[in-house]
Write a structure and sequence with these properties.
Low-confidence stretches: none
Mean pLDDT: 91
Helix content: 10-25%
Largest sheet: 2 strands, antiparallel
Oligomer: single chain
CATH architecture: 2-Layer Sandwich
CATH topology: Alpha-Beta Plaits
Shape: globular
Strand order of the largest sheet: 1-4
Bound molecules: iron/sulfur cluster
Number of domains: 1
Distance between the termini: 19 Å
CATH class: Alpha Beta
Length: 81
Amino acid sequence: MTMEAKKGRIVIDCNLCKGCYLCVSVCPNELIAISTESNEKGYYPARFTEAKSKNKKDLKCTGCAMCAVVCPDIAIEVYRG
Ligand code: SF4
Ligand code: SF4
């Protein structure tokens, strides 16, 4: 029996995000980056980068939820499976 890696994905509400980037710093797989476009409040929101990820290890979101837990603005929803 092989152990499959857990799968997850996140959705960031860009207009709730205040650009503190705590989520960027905690994601163990470096899947969150900073957007180049500002939101309606003038902040540059975090964005989920897995689809465009070119990191060498090809790391995927595991749904660990560390990003959502650390977000002070409850801007991140985590989906598993
Ligand atoms: S932790 Fe929340 S508020 Fe801070 S950058 Fe990430 S999504 Fe935005
Ligand atoms: S759920 Fe975990 S692996 Fe997925 S983006 Fe958030 S911190 Fe990274």
